[in-house]
Amino acid sequence: MKTFSIHTKLIALGLTCTFVITSCSDSFLDVPTQNQQPSQEFWKTQDDATKAVNSIYASQRAWEQVAFAPIAVESLGSDDTEKGSSASDATFLNKYDDFSVTSTDGQLLDFWKGKYQAINLCNQVLDNIPAISMDATLKARYLAEAKFIRAYNYFRLVRAFGDVPLRLSTPKSGAEFNLPRAPKAEVWAAIEKDLTDAAAGLPVSYSGADVGRATKGAALALHAKVAMYLSKWGDVLAYTDQVKALGYTLFSDYEKLFRVSNENSVESIFEIQAALIPGNPAASTSQYSQVQGVRGSTGGGWGFNVPTTSLVNEYEANDPRKEATIIFRGETTPQGDVIPVSGDNPMYNQKSYVPFGDYVSGFNEGCQQNIRVIRFAEVLLMNAEANNELGNTTAALAALELVRARARGGNNTILPQVTTTDKVQLRNAIWHERRVELAMEFDRYFDVIRQGRAVTVFGPKGWKANKNEVWPIPQNEIDLSAGKLVQNPGY
After folding, report:
1. How high is the pLDDT of residue 37?
2. Which ranges of the chain have pLDDT less than 70?
3. Which of 13, 93, 286, 350 could cysteine-pair with 61, CB 3.0–4.6 Å?
4. Which residues sit opposite 272 in a β-bridge?
């Protein structure tokens, strides 16, 4: 009996059953209960194309994409976070914190599944929309959007697992379903090609209901990040310089930047869109804030993925980003919520925080909170790092200073300007700035690995070289592939 891995079975499901598992209405965010439209009746009209592309965005806020799986795979291995919640709740997450996780853990499978579900939807768009008779400009944009989201999901996969199956189209025969792992160099190359194509086909900005879709700046910024992981410093500089020319700027108030009222701000380059849609809990699905919210407070959340003392100690004296990033037990938030002085956790993620008064019974706590994926501050820090690596010290210092100047908010007695011209010292200053500026944004773990410092930074937690650079391939996928997928070394 022929067996298929989960990522291939999902593609088959999308082709032979119904397309509509995550399809949207004409509204970008409103995802109503679906009518089961057979796939053979789909891919006919421009409206079908719109629904298909909207389904890609909807997939990005699914449980597998924003909740336990990314906390496990992209956050808990770092020195910035630990499990949180009560000691007895979801103890399996501790295995990511101490690197004792095995290939059978369900969060690995969820992470893998979420990415390939999204890639499946992107591939269906890319394979089917070209044949639809519709507005040519919109068609080109939709294809570019699908390439961006596909690249983003492969970026997350290749960081997490190394070599992964590379599927760039929907399978048409049995032989195409069960793919082996492609070398990571091929995956990185496919990501770069998708991002090059996306940048060429995406607009600089949107208006109205389309705000939040992928833009040219998003494709260029993600390409810069990919190039940074590949140490292509000339490319990092070129892409970040292009983004800098597109009109982005830093939002003036760091703490307010992460509030719902300031989503898709002048600093936002790409956010996963979420919303609380009155009367439609089924469309208000994001649990990103819910799983990280203050435990024990009505309208708070479950209390997972909490900051560490190590992160607290990383901030320089008087750096206001500490208070804007971390909710401390016993404090009163700027929005007036009183945090209990006792409870399971001394700290929580303030960047995912939604004021308790915004909670609506019957909806996930904080379901209206967008997930910030790429901000202009990170583009500036990538630009600073690239300039430093290329010997452009003055330009590196200038980009770094823009980020620090926003943090100090005009108070020049705090956060002194970095002035060192020593390449190693400046590199370390930029890495420090990445940690405090991007804290609790699911960046730190893989950032330290790509910097080559994981043994030093994570070694005390149990991280081992030549093993923990990647996580294990989900055993369920290996079993379903009849052994065509092979396990990463050490697992």
Report:
1. 61
2. 1-39
3. 286
4. 371
CB 297 within 8 A of CB 355: no
Closest CA to 370 of 463, 482, 294, 268: 268
pLDDT score of 31: 47
Phi-psi region of 291 (alpha: psi -120 to 50; beta: other; left: phi over 0): alpha
Give the 3-state secondary structure of the chain: CCCCCHHHHHHHHHHHCECCCCCCCCCCCCCCCCCCCEHHHCCCCHHHHHHHHHHHHHHCCCHHHHCHHHHHHHHCCCCCEEEECCCCCCHHHHHHHCCCCCCCCHHHHHHHHHHHHHHHHHHHHHHHHHHCCCCHHHHHHHHHHHHHHHHHHHHHHHHHHCCECCCCCCCCCHHHCCCCCECHHHHHHHHHHHHHHHHHHCCCCCCHHHCCCCCHHHHHHHHHHHHHHCCCHHHHHHHHHHHHCCCCCCCCCHHHHCCHHHCCCCCEEEEECCCCCCCCHHHCCCCHHHHHCCECCCCCECCEEEECHHHHHHCCCCCCHHHHHEEECCCECCCCCECCCCCCCCEEECCCCCCHHHCCCCCCCCCCCCEEEEEHHHHHHHHHHHHHHCCCHHHHHHHHHHHHHHHHCCCCCCCCCCCCCCHHHHHHHHHHHHHHHCCCCCCHHHHHHHCCCHHHHHHHHCCCCCCCCCCCCCHHHHHHCCCCCCCCCCC
Predicted local distance difference test score (pLDDT) of residue 38: 65
pLDDT at 30: 55
User: pLDDT tens digits, residue range 262-286?
Assistant: 999 999 999 999 999 999 999 999 9
| Domain chopping of the chain, boundaries | 1-184, 281-369
CB 345 within 8 A of CB 331: no
Contacts of 428 (CB under 8 A, 6+ apart): none
Residue 112 has what pLDDT? Answer: 98
- Range 1-184 has CATH code 1.25.40.390: yes
For residue 374, which phi and psi values (nearest 5 degrees)? -135, 125
**How far is the C-alpha of 66 from the C-alpha of 371, rounded, in Å?**
8
Residue with tokens 């059978």: 104
Quote the tokens at residue 442: 């699911």
When the pLDDT of each residue in the chain is averaged and rounded to a whole number, the result is 92
